[in-house]
């Protein structure tokens, strides 16, 4: 398997966690999102990923885009350990958390969105930092309440073993810390983050542990 | 089953399409996103959906959030007709398209984002309309090329029957038209849209056909 990745991409980090949890070896192909105007915009990379985003996974003739689709694929092709629970209701709970992070928070704080805000909307540094913090804070407010209220959550988002939901949560908390967003008001999220980062599968997938880390 | 919905919400429309394709009867509970500052912010609704977004599906004691998680749940609990293909590679293709729409385009043009751009960033009407069109155009450019290049696509995004991918694509095209975004440069997307809207499952899920339509 070949993973096109960028060390700081949280979408790529999600997939790296899943690969590590399942102990699947892979070749990491770094795609530098900033160098030379962005290597993701090259014709070569776009032929694999028309949207010019990371990650892309190439496995057995399949060229796969979108981190959550890739993780579901890995879970279907390498079921152990499972990243989704067994019952449909539990699976929807886990997917719901993953999608809340992947749809309601992360897309708004993507590199290309911050660039557009700066160059086209003309938002200054303070406005962009406030934007970044706003979407994390509002999303985490909802998610922390959701996790705290659910009988399904435990040491991780669902029960006591990591799932798809945690592959999305941990990179998002790391990003919040990196941009100095105050997350002290989200104790359940912080507890899960601290617990997950004790596991090599999460820590070794972190930006600083990647071959292309700067 | 009870679906908390808003006629213009494209996330709710995705689920309405899935329910119709599977011929599942449901009670529609309208949540007006604009009236009285937004009915989604009421304590009652937030107890079902901490994120204060539609849709929410209540089924058999399960309270489910996030449209794609809900559709996967419906596909697992009511497998016929399937909304995902059989092989892992094909499933990842379908999920990848659904997620590209749900993560790269739709979140940026959500009501709450447009509100924040206006009230907090101070973006005027022209800047907000340009923002709206930009994310649709850039996303559709990638998606149209992806669909046109793939041996997997047919009358629909995958083959000749509707899948999860189409439940996401059709509402997004409708929104583009509603905001006068030029989509003439995306012939494969337009062809799939025109084809899908011939089917009652899609047309009867459209905003204008909802009990709360204005």
Automatic annotation (TrEMBL), chains A, B:
Q: Which CDD domains match?
A: GST_C_Zeta, GST_N_Zeta
MF (Gene Ontology): glutathione transferase activity; maleylacetoacetate isomerase activity; maleylpyruvate isomerase activity
The record lists the organism as: Paraburkholderia solisilvae
Q: Which key words tag this protein in UniProt? A: Isomerase, Pyruvate
EC? 5.2.1.4
Q: Which GO terms describe its biological process?
A: glutathione metabolic process; L-phenylalanine catabolic process
Q: Which GO terms describe its cellular component?
A: cytoplasm
By sequence similarity, the record places it as follows:
Belongs to the GST superfamily. Zeta family.
Gene name of the record: nagL_2
Q: Which domain of life does the protein's organism represent?
A: Bacteria
Q: Does the keyword Isomerase apply?
A: yes
Where's the GST N-terminal domain?
Answer: 1-82
| Gene3D superfamilies, A to Z | 1.20.1050.10, Glutaredoxin (3.40.30.10)
Q: What protein name applies here?
A: Maleylpyruvate isomerase
- Enzyme class at the top of the EC tree: isomerase
Q: Which InterPro entries match?
A: Glutathione-S-Trfase_C-like, Glutathione-S-Trfase_C_sf, Glutathione_S-Trfase, Glutathione_S-Trfase_N, GST_Zeta, GST_Zeta_C, GST_Zeta_N, Thioredoxin-like_sf
């Amino acid at each position: 398997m070949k993973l096109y990745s960028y060390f700081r991409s949280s979408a790529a980090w999600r997939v790296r966690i899943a690969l590590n949890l399942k102990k699947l070896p892979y070749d990491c192909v770094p795609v530098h999102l900033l160098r030379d105007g962005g290597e993701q915009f090259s014709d070569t990379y776009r032929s694999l990923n028309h949207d010019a985003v990371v990650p892309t996974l190439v496995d057995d003739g399949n060229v796969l885009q979108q981190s959550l689709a890739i993780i579901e694929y890995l879970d279907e092709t390498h079921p152990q350990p499972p990243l989704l629970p067994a019952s449909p209701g539990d699976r929807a709970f886990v997917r719901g958390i993953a999608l809340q992070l992947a749809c309601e928070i992360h897309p708004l704080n993507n590199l290309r969105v911050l660039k557009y805000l700066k160059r086209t909307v003309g938002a200054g540094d303070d406005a962009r930092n406030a934007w970044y913090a706003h979407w994390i804070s509002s999303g985490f407010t909802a998610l922390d309440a959701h996790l705290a209220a659910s009988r399904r959550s435990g040491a991780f988002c669902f029960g006591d073993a990591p799932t798809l939901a945690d592959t999305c949560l941990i990179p998002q908390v790391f990003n919040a810390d990196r941009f100095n967003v105050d997350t002290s008001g989200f104790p359940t999220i912080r507890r899960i983050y601290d617990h997950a980062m004790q596991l090599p599968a999460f820590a070794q997938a972190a930006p600083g542990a990647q071959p292309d880390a700067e």
